[in-house]
Amino acid sequence: MTEDILRKLKQIISEELDINLKPQEIDENASLFEEGLGIDSVVLMEFIGLIEANFGLQFTDEELSMEPFTNLTALAELISRKRASQ
Question: Where is the Carrier domain (predicted)?
Fold first, then answer.
């Protein structure tokens, strides 16, 4: 299930955010921020909204801490846990 989530997250980044990468070029263990994919705070807010819409979930304030958003692997694990608890 996590692989499907990772695939969808890469698709969202590639197709819906202003990131010039193809899904296969995105390293799921790279930082989402400056030193990795280069996502800034404005793009991060857009990304969060797209994740919530695409996966039918809503993040709590606690979940919006930076830790789950360090890389796509951590984010996919959070999404998987949230979906399992619904």
Answer: 3-83
